[in-house]
Design goal:
Elements: H1 7-18, H2 27-47, E1 53-56, E2 67-70, H3 72-95, H4 102-121, H5 125-143, H6 149-180, H7 185-195, H8 199-216, H9 225-231, H10 234-260, H11 268-293, H12 298-325, H13 330-365, H14 381-395, H15 401-415, H16 419-444, H17 461-475, H18 478-481, H19 483-498, H20 502-511
Antiparallel strand pairs: 1-2
Helix pairs in contact: 1-2, 1-4, 2-3, 2-4, 3-4, 3-10, 3-13, 3-17, 3-19, 4-5, 4-10, 5-6, 5-10, 6-8, 6-9, 7-20, 8-10, 9-10, 9-12, 10-12, 10-13, 11-12, 11-16, 12-13, 12-15, 12-16, 13-14, 13-15, 13-17, 13-19, 14-16, 14-17, 15-16
């Protein structure tokens, strides 16, 4: 590796401590530096695609030392995190001027990025927990950044449920250590492969599912999300829905279940665990979609939509695990996993775009209430166009990115003869289409209210970030349609999960 993996954590962590020094007088310089850091992280993340590596901190050999692991899965999620972070930071250049203490916002933002990057690269269970806490604590503060009653209440609820999730995860880590004698993921995996799953380890798995389910806002663990996401500043809403719940929740759960415990193997009990994951996914998909229908707050609608969309990702992963556990065609499992991971990346982009668009709308109109809007397409042409593209992508309208990932999940379900799962995916897609047609009708179409006749669209970097993400929504289908991109980006990520316990063998060999 030309780029040492610790830089993904060290660079934003260093920036987080340096940026507050600039103070109010140097906020322009601090903002410029923050954007340079996030764009640099994007370049570093893209350079990792197609590579694998193990970095042992201080050259301490595992399992005694801390190690960072790069494989197809961590590389894909790193790219998603850094791209969304760069877009959100670019958007915040102008958006966050309406808040005081911008340097503190930049500091907390960088801490959150450092935590997420650490989660993605961590090869050690305890350090996974530490990085989750770094990202979580900074996100609690960012949700409350406006210091209004709504923000403080939402942040408090988020913090309480987030810390409950962290306790579940910490207890699970402790039980895993007590049962195996290791904290290193690769060595835990080897221990489980040699001795099998004990009752204690199955209990740890249950705790991990609940803890990471809370972090991912899966139903019925979703109560914090509909308040936290609307209350946060728009760039933070984009980060929370775009990458935080996926990194701290979905990615961590997938890594632990597939690679650490190797839970998806040929076993009747593991089939039952697969159905639990699929059940949570489908419950989230349907509940989130139905709850979104009745919302008039544009950001609250998008928040419930995130609950539904995370269900798609987990459904793809759970379906892949079920196919493996039943001993069916491995190619079907790989396809389901690829669909789930592709949807993770797609949703990161178009949901971030939707929340940033909502921020542009709120900044221009002064409201999030869709019943007080209408006819904004002429007044906010760029925002209207980008929001329409994102709405089409999330609804699965061809040829936008969301269509392809949903189609892959449907094909995998049909190939495995779970036709009803494919039908659920199509049904929820129709529900999603309806909710975003409602958004288009109430916000951009119809008659312009008298009090909004003089509004103007936000300019500069806010527009640039919207346009960049909208372009990605259009072109990301190429990741599937161009063989080189599919084989170099998506398939290695899916294979990282499908290989299960081989993760341990690869990590230990690379560490020697």
């Amino acid at each position: 590796m030309n780029i040492p993996l610790p830089l993904f954590v060290a660079v934003p962590l260093f920036a987080a401590f340096v940026l507050p020094i600039f103070g109010k007088k140097g906020k322009s310089a601090a903002t410029f530096l923050a954007n340079v850091v996030t764009l640099g992280l994007v370049a570093m993340a893209v350079s990792t695609l197609g590579r694998t590596a193990v970095y042992q901190i201080g050259r301490w050999p595992i399992p005694f030392g801390i190690n960072l692991v790069l494989d197809g899965l961590s590389s894909l999620v790193l790219v998603a995190v850094t791209v969304v972070s760069a877009a959100a930071m670019l958007f915040s250049v102008r958006y966050m001027e309406q808040y005081t203490a911008k340097s503190k916002f930049l500091c907390l933002f960088m801490l959150m990025v450092a935590g997420m990057n650490g989660v993605v690269l961590s090869g050690d269970m305890f350090n996974l927990f530490v990085f989750i806490e770094i990202a979580s604590l900074s996100s609690y503060a960012l949700v409350a950044f406006g210091c209004e009653a709504e923000e403080l209440e939402a942040s408090f609820k988020y913090m309480v449920l987030g810390q409950i999730a962290s306790l579940f995860i910490l207890f699970a880590v402790a039980i895993t250590y007590a049962q195996t004698g290791y904290l290193n993921m690769a060595y835990i995996s080897q221990s489980v492969a040699a001795s099998g799953m004990s009752k204690g380890l199955y209990f740890a798995v249950a705790l991990f599912i609940v803890g990471f389910g809370l972090k991912a806002a899966l139903v019925p663990f979703h109560a914090w999300l509909p308040d936290a996401h609307p209350s946060a500043p728009a760039p933070i809403s984009a980060m929370l829905s775009g990458v935080l719940i996926k990194t701290l929740g979905v990615y961590a759960l997938a890594r632990v279940l597939f690679n650490v415990f190797g839970i998806f193997t040929l076993s009747d009990l593991h089939i039952e665990i697969s159905w639990i994951i699929i059940g949570l996914a489908i419950l989230s998909m349907i509940t989130g979609a139905f709850l979104a229908f009745g919302q008039t707050d544009i950001k609250r609608l998008m928040a419930y939509s995130s609950v539904s969309q995370v269900g798609y990702i987990v459904l793809g992963l759970g379906l892949g695990g079920l196919i493996i556990s039943k001993g069916l065609n491995p190619a079907w499992a790989l396809l389901a996993l690829l669909g789930g991971l592709f949807h993770l990346v797609n949703h990161s982009v178009y949901k971030s775009l939707l929340f940033l668009s909502s921020g542009s709308i709120q900044m221009s109109t002064g409201t999030r209430d869709m019943t007080q809007m209408g006819g904004l397409a002429n007044k906010l042409p760029v925002t209207g166009t980008t929001a329409t593209i994102a709405s089409a992508a999330i609804a699965g309208v061809p040829p936008f990115s969301g269509f392809w990932s949903k189609l892959i999940i449907v094909i995998a379900a049909v190939q495995a003869h779970y036709y009803w799962i494919g039908a659920v995916v199509v049904f929820v897609s129709l529900c999603t289409l309806i909710m975003y047609l409602k958004l288009q009708k109430n916000v951009f179409l119809g008659e312009l209210p008298e009090n909004l006749k003089d509004i103007t669209e936000q300019k500069g970097t806010m527009k640039i970030s919207l346009i960049v993400l909208a372009v990605l929504c259009v072109v990301m289908g190429l990741l599937l349609l161009v063989p080189a991109l599919k084989e170099g980006v998506l398939e290695p990520a899916a294979q990282s999960l499908a290989s299960g316990a081989e993760y341990a063998v690869n990590v230990i060999q690379m560490a020697r």
